[in-house]
Design brief:
The chain is of the alpha/beta class and 351 residues long. The protein contains twelve helices and 15 strands. It has two domains: 185 residues, Medium-chain alcohol dehydrogenases, catalytic domain (Quinone Oxidoreductase, Chain A, domain 1, Alpha-Beta Complex); 135 residues, 3-Layer(aba) Sandwich (Rossmann fold), CATH 3.40.50. The longest helix is centred in the middle third of the chain and has 14 residues. The radius of gyration is 20 Å and the shape is globular.
């Protein structure tokens, strides 16, 4: 860790179930490829909750939480070529060098020199300042037409949704089923629309979240598994075949099972959810379906493209921000987000 003696506010994971807003030294440049970002706005992610509960083995106690943010460049190392102090930027949730075997093929989540580090194994963004490694790869400059609020989710949940849609290899006559109408599921719907399927089926047990999808025109069919047989409904829509592709964005044992059950033979099941327990592939039951499963952490390699789509008004995620809190009140925000009170989707933390 690199710090100086100036002090800032930061939210720290102290132990399982315990977080605290504390004074921390401001970060300093550790490498000529680093940048220090003044955080303007950050958000809380479900994976932050996974860390607090002890479900992320690589997470370090004492770490500053958070990996989803936008801000202004405060200072840069001598090796940073794309950014100067004052630039408005969004940040990728992953650290990646852009030069290794995996990065050159777009698999930035598997970077040999990075991966998910910010807010996990290095200090994160739920603070006044954050250090970003490999700044030229990890940061995306924001045009004046894109506000901080517009770009808040570019580097994490919007990238996750877009990645899930890409994994599905969607064709124009496809029926795409998306399980989970939480923030990642909604971003998956938003992204899947960009690939022009014939119909998108939104599935969730929470009618209020399905209403959000409907109000924002993100899907065509809206199904609640507590009120209907999802398999029957999907088969009715597809002449008995099942969905051409399924994005699993809910992250439970029942949603994982639903994903492969409602997929047609030879379909793609893209798993973008993070699970707290191992899931089982019941191979005898799915024998002959010839499914392709695509799983793992998001490869958020399309941030520049997503910012461009936002600037062209082709994508808008502002509706996801249902609540705003100051950094001083971030512990209250965590309680609201974890309990999903007051129809909370995403919370913007402002500095």
């Amino acid at each position: 860790m690199c710090y100086n003696y100036s002090v800032m506010k930061a939210l720290v994971w102290k132990d399982i179930g315990e977080i605290e807003l504390v004074d921390r030294p401001m970060p300093e440049l550790c490498s000529d490829k680093d940048a220090i970002i003044k955080v303007v706005m950050s958000s809380i992610c479900t994976s932050d909750l996974h860390i607090i509960k002890g479900f992320v083995p690589k997470a370090s106690k004492g770490i500053v939480l958070g990996h989803e943010f936008v801000g202004e460049v405060h200072s840069v190392g001598s090796g940073v070529k794309k950014f100067v102090p004052g630039d408005r930027v969004s940040a990728n949730c992953e650290t990646f060098c852009g030069e290794c075997w995996f990065c050159k093929r777009g698999f930035v989540n598997n970077c040999e020199n990075g991966g998910w580090e910010i807010g996990c194994s290095t200090d994160g963004c739920q603070a006044e300042y954050v250090r970003v490694s490999y700044a030229d790869s990890v940061l995306t400059k924001l045009p004046e037409s894109v506000s901080f609020e517009n770009a808040l989710f570019v580097g994490d949940i919007l990238s996750s949704g877009y990645w899930g849609a890409e994994l599905c290899e969607i064709k124009h006559d496809d029926v795409v089923a998306i399980i989970g109408a939480g923030p990642v599921g909604l971003c998956s719907m938003l992204s899947a629309k960009m690939f022009g399927p014939s119909r998108i089926v939104a599935i969730d047990t929470d009618d209020s979240r399905l209403s959000v999808a409907k109000e924002n025109g993100l899907a065509d069919i809206f199904l609640n598994p507590d009120k209907c047989d999802i398999g029957d409904e999907v088969r009715k829509l597809t002449d008995g075949r099942g969905a051409d592709s399924v994005i699993e964005a809910a992250g439970s044992s029942s949603s994982f099972q639903m994903a492969w059950e409602i997929a047609r033979a030879n379909a793609i099941v893209a798993v973008v959810a993070m699970y707290e327990k191992n899931q089982v592939l019941p191979l005898p039951n799915m024998y002959g379906k010839n499914l392709t499963f695509k799983t793992g952490g998001v490869d958020a390699a399309k941030c520049e493209k997503l910012v461009e789509l936002i600037s062209q008004n082709k994508i808008n995620t502002d509706f996801l921000i249902t609540h705003k809190f100051s950094l001083e009140n971030i512990k209250e925000a965590y309680k609201l987000f974890e309990n999903k009170d007051d129809n909370c989707l995403k919370i913007a933390i402002t500095n």
